[in-house]
Cytochrome P450
Amino acid sequence: MMAAQQILLAVSTVAVILIGRWIIQTIQWNRKYKLPPTVPGVPIFGNTFQIPALQQGPWAKELAEKYGEMFTCKFGGNTWVFLNSSRVVTDLMERRAAIYNSRPEFPMTQGIMSRDSRIVLMPYNEQWRTVRKIMHQILSARALDVFMPFQDLESKNLCWDYLETPDRWWSANGRYANSVIMSVVFGRRSSLDDPHVVELFETLELFLENQQPGVNIVDAFPVLDKIIPKFLQWWRPRGDRIYEKTAHVYRREVDMLENKIKNGTAKRCFGTDFLKTDEVKKMSEVQKLFVFGTLMEAGSDTSRVTIGQIIAGAVTSPDWVARARAELDKVCGYNAERLPQFEDRPNLSYISAVVKEGFRWRPNIAEIGAPTMLIKDDEYEGYKFPAGTVFTWNAWAIALSPKEYEEPERFWPERFLNGEEESALKGHWGFGPGRRVCVGWKVGEMNVWIAIARLLYCFDFTAVPGKPIDTMTIPQITNNSAPFAVKVTPRSAKHAALVRRDCEAAAKTQY
């Protein structure tokens, strides 16, 4: 009995000491730091169970309307600060990018599913700088001349697919965007029924699903990865399966290219040059695969989604389409004389504005931005942030704020007719801020520009009876199916004839 009382006393003493220590640390922390208003949550888990698993933009927008330019959430052991205006995003993530643009720990999505090799989740380190340099070499503005012939060919193929199989317009968007990057990186095209393309988008959506806050407990509480032995980590087998599927998709393409090189049948491309470099010789096999894989993913999804967003805007706000058509007809002919070309860009400023509006309008690729981590203590407008705080730009809230844009819910390209139509990064956060801005932004913008110019010139987009488009709920994860219904028809018999005359050869080209 005495022993039991002694144990109880000891446990009670330890508990009192721990609670007392926590109280003292909390008091000291509160004296040293001050965060923006905190959204009420529950003990330990904070706001983890409040955030929707998918389509988080409306949830975060509502909180921004309540709390103002910044608010704080707790997702497990992580403290997130949401930045809800372009002003604070510019001040912190752009002007202080050196300390605000690292990445927090993601033991599941980066550690297990990506074997610490996915550049989008890498913290600032030598590995990130090496991979970023490689990505910049292939995707920078200096490489545009390499991409343009493929964008020309593949956008003609896109028009052909819209004419011949209009009900498969979404798959055609994916094939188009993927085939541009596959041609540049691997020297091969993608077909509309290419199962490799389908599987690539499956692995990408698996990553996006698991990257949402609250989906994986170990990403909310990274300490669990350190204190729980690996054989007891119940989340690990699922992460390993996703990694194996992802690596298989990447490895298949790299193996095909390496076999072509051995056989002397490889078409010169980024991959053939990259495999000869000193950088690749220093990389692990996994890192090499993820360099190729990141290029495939980054070159595919953003363009696919943005083209779809602009089509949704054409259906729901057709007034701007007439103005776009007037410009296109003036340049390319009122009777379907020829397709728009890259050389027409200086005379098609409205189309450039349409593309910028497409990136702004409904930012559902990253509705609440992408989390970055502060690497040292900082102060801003009375707040004191500790190192390790996670920051994100609240993309949905900013894009749909009347304080940022006049009539923000309206698809209205005129808002970007300000002399900066060709400054693709100005006026929206579609490619992200600071040092984490999408390295392939110019290639992605050009993908969308030539595709939209030709599609708007040649096709009409109308609603399907009984299937209206709710632009506020267009899903981010589509499982390879169209996110909304749309009827695609040629503008006229002459426009159909133009597509047949100028695009059939592109659809039949093989390499």
Remarks:
- The mean pLDDT is 92.
